[in-house]
Design goal:
Layout (H helix, E strand, L loop, with lengths): L2 H22 L11 H33 L8 H36 L11 H13 L4 E9 L1 H8 L1 H16 L3 E6 L2 E7 L3 H20 L7 E9 L7 H16 L5 E7 L1
Parallel strand pairs: 4-5
Antiparallel strand pairs: 1-3, 1-4, 2-3
Length: about 270
C-alpha cells in the first residue's frame, strides 16, 4: 500500500469522529476548520473525485451525528470563547497559507512556461513577448540567430544527456553577454534593442569566441558557428513572422558555407 492510499484512508477515518464531536458540541462551537485537514489530504492525494467523496462523507457524518445525538454538550462561556478564538485563528491561518501557496504555485508555473527546461534560458514564447515589446518601443534593433553545425553528430556519438549538459554550459556563458533565447532545439536567438548592426556583430563575435574558448575547447569539440544578424532600422514597419522567415532563410544560406560564419543583413 503506497503512501497516498494510506493518507486517503486516514482522511476518511478522521472525518466521522470530527462530525460526531462537531454535533455534540453544538452550533456555538463549530469544528468546521478541522474538516480542512482530511478534505485537503483526500483531494491532494486522490484528486477531485476522492475529494468530493470525502466532502460527501463529511456531510453524511454530520447528519447521522445529528440524528443519533440530538442533544448538545453545554460548555462554559470562557471555554466557548477560548475555543472560538482558537478555531478562527486556525481557519484564518489555513486560508492565508493556502492562498499564498496557490499564488506562488501559479506564479512559478507562469515563469516555467517562459523558460527552456534544458538550458534555463527564456524560450520561444518569451522571445515572442520580448519581440512585441521591442516593436512597441518603435526604435531600431538587431536580431541574431545562432546555430551549431555538427551538433547532430554529437547527439549520435555521445548521447542526449551530454548535449543537454553542453547546451546548459553554453547558456551560462550566453546569459552573461547577451539577451538570449532558446528559439528551437538547435537555434539560439539574441535580441539587441536599440543596437545597430555593427555593434550587434561585435557582440555576437565576442559571444562566439567566449563559447568556443570556455565551453567547446574544454570538451575537445570543434563545432562551427553559423550566425545571422538582421538589423531593423524602422521597427514600426516590422512584421515578426516576416522577420523570422527572412533570418531563417539567411541561416540556410550560411549553412552552405564552410567554417564559422557570421553575417549581417539589413532587413527592410
Amino acid at each position: 500500500m503506497n503512501r497516498k492510499t494510506v493518507l486517503i484512508i486516514f482522511s476518511f477515518l478522521l472525518i466521522p469522529p470530527i462530525g460526531l464531536i462537531d454535533q455534540m458540541t453544538g452550533s456555538d462551537l463549530s469544528l468546521i476548520a478541522f474538516y480542512f485537514v482530511p478534505l485537503a489530504l483526500a483531494s491532494w492525494c486522490g484528486g477531485m473525485a476522492v475529494g468530493a467523496a470525502a466532502g460527501l462523507l463529511s456531510v453524511v457524518a454530520w447528519v447521522i451525528s445529528n440524528v443519533a445525538f440530538p442533544t448538545h454538550v453545554d460548555l462554559p462561556p470562557t471555554a466557548m470563547l477560548i475555543w472560538g478564538t482558537a478555531e478562527k485563528t486556525i481557519f484564518f491561518a489555513l486560508v492565508v497559507v493556502v492562498a499564498t501557496k496557490l499564488h506562488e504555485l501559479l506564479e512559478l508555473k507562469k515563469r516555467q512556461a517562459l523558460v527552456d527546461f534544458v538550458t534555463g534560458l527564456p524560450n520561444r514564447r518569451a522571445f515572442a513577448r520580448a519581440m512585441q515589446k521591442t516593436l512597441a518601443d518603435a526604435r531600431p534593433f538587431s536580431l541574431a540567430f545562432m546555430e551549431l553545425e555538427g551538433l547532430e553528430d554529437i547527439y549520435l556519438e555521445r548521447g542526449e544527456l551530454f548535449v543537454d549538459r553542453l547546451l546548459s554550459e553554453m547558456a551560462t556563458t550566453c546569459r552573461g553577454l547577451v539577451q538570449g533565447f532558446r528559439y528551437s532545439d538547435q537555434r539560439f536567438a539574441a535580441l539587441f534593442p536599440e543596437v545597430n548592426g555593427p555593434t550587434a556583430v561585435r557582440r555576437m563575435s565576442a559571444l562566439m569566441a567566449a563559447l568556443d574558448r570556455d565551453v567547446l575547447q574544454t570538451k575537445g569539440l570543434d563545432l562551427k558557428f553559423k550566425t545571422g544578424i538582421a538589423y531593423c532600422e524602422d521597427s514600426a514597419k516590422v512584421s515578426i513572422p516576416h522577420l523570422v522567415r527572412f533570418l531563417a532563410g539567411s541561416m540556410i544560406f550560411l549553412h552552405g558555407k564552410e567554417g564559422d560564419q557570421l553575417e549581417f543583413f539589413q532587413f527592410r
